[in-house]
Amino acid sequence: MSAILAAIHDIGYRAYPYDAQSLEAAQRRQARGLLARLAIAGLGMMQVMMYALPEYLTGDGRIASDLDSLMRWAALILTLPVVLYSASPFISGAWRDVRTHRVGMDVPVALAIAIAFAASVLATITHDGAVYFDSIAMFVFLLLGARYLELRARQKAASHLESLSRALPATANYLAQFPESMHAETVPAGTLVEGQYILVRPGETFPVDGLIEQGETEVDESFVTGESMPVSRFKGELVVGGSTNRGNPVVVCVQHVGEHTVLSAIVKLMERATHSRPRLQEFTDAVAARFVAVVLILATGVAAWWLLNDPSRALPIVVSVLIVTCPCALALATPMAMAVATSYAGRHGLLVTRSHALETLARASHFVIDKTGTLTEGKVTVNEIGALGTNRDRALSLAAALEYGSEHPIAEAIREVAPASRPAQRIRNLPGRGIEGIVDGRHYRIGTAEFAAELVGAEETPAHAFQTWLATEGQLLAGFRFDDRLRPDAPAFVQALRAQNREIELLSGDHAVSVGKAAASLGITVWHAAMTPQDKLDYVKELQAQGAIVAMIGDGVNDAPVLAQAQVSIAMMSGAALAQGAADMIFLSGRLSDVARMFKYARRTRRIVRQNLAWAASYNIVAIPLAMTGYVTPWMAAIGMSASSLLVVLNALRLARRPRDHKLVIAPG
Predict the structure, then answer these.
(1) Looking at 370, 484, 559, 594, which residue is catalytic?
(2) CA-to-CA dists, residue 181 to 207, 214, 450, 625, angstroms
(3) Dihedral (Cα; 107, 112, 115, 119), 10-degree rounding
(4) Does the predicted TM-score (pTM) go above 0.70?
């Protein structure tokens, strides 16, 4: 650790132990410090401009020498706090860059301030030459103003993550004697363990993830899912820590506490996205770094040319070139837009876990979608049982024993209707095929027709149209057919993507009858059933080999490999943890409409980024030649550079506004 801290110190930074409250206090200090520097620079600029204005109005040589000298010295004294205090972040940043042998944005800024100030001081002492105190004060003020707005925008964009970090209450109402007594005592929430009971009154925030043991209520989950309307929760249903009880008092059985809650998992995923950078940002950062080096070389060449041809104009032109070419707008173009967009997505039910996700989603050409739990509600029910080699209850009991620990929707459907049974021994899960294990000394399998047929020893799969089969050695025991309703917004979701000319394909491990029925209901023409995880992976690789940019949406364990393979992947919050870990985005609300809306928003984000980059490039293409040829004075350069940065920040902040079109259907273009 000491070596790491030393390395951080060597590049000009200090490291502190992470603490949410300390971080918030540090950010407040940073904002107050920047605001104080901005105020000093503003006051200095106004006062210095008062002394510079007479010379602008009367022209050179029209003011008495002693009065002109007095005004220059007054301007020097008023500019000193601006340079030594207000401009200190740029000077210290430039010094840090020089020490670490890199060229950052602060280098040309500090160089311009130092050259202009030194030349102005010399001109004041010798009373020979022009002074640029007004340009220096204006430059520092405008640049600080742009940085202050950038800081506030970044902090606002990060506020959702910070508020999530503080969402879990520190205490809980512990019911030590439940159900014999409802007496509650206040204890630290972190001391609770799984299986204990707590009381959550109306208006209180759930401190843990847990199952409602007694009572029913309405829960506000907008903090997590973005859903503004409270949802009903009944006995046996899960409530998520950080949500608010809006109905009746309920008793909750603790399931997960602290870092193991859903909310903490969300925060960790958001932090992962925050600490990574999209490819476009990496590119623009690299361009900005090289651009600064080119600017310094260019300024040196310009200085040499003007010193040979017109030495009196060399200094103001070099200062103008250094100021006008500061690549702040270029460096801010992508990160500002991405920070605002990621925050907006989190507030509206879609968690971005990797920084490239929005950028890639906007370019997606193919949406490959899993069926169960994605296009459907994931609440599978047993519709029919075909008992062949045993009776119905025995088939259900054996199936439940094999599916004992599985999180698959089919497993949950079987366990709901099966009689109580012990788990099978030596259970082995083969994603995309089924589960096998030992019950009462015999080998059983439940899964696809092919998987069951292998154990039976049959060369052909069963002819019956059941989705799942139960078998033992030498004998098929039963077939199961399940129903799973489509999500209400699934048709509109498919229609929205199709209106945007995107290809939609359905891949599923389910039986062809079920998959075909769902595809027909949604108007999806390309669908494939009975696919193993390897089949899905190979299919997506083939699409990518043909040039497709694939967005994969899934929720099961068997979707994890293909989610990792796709250029951008989206998992359901209700899905398996492995699928979520492989995904670039997780939609918390469970609404497909949010995915369609976010696709539109991703395209809008890309459009804003392109506008920012286009403006930054256009500004430099126009401003640099004008500055080199002397048509831009230092004060004009200060206004132009600051206005350019401010425009980029304000344009990025447009992404924080809700689009005017709230409809799900997305218009082409």
Answers:
(1) 370
(2) 21, 13, 55, 82
(3) -170
(4) no
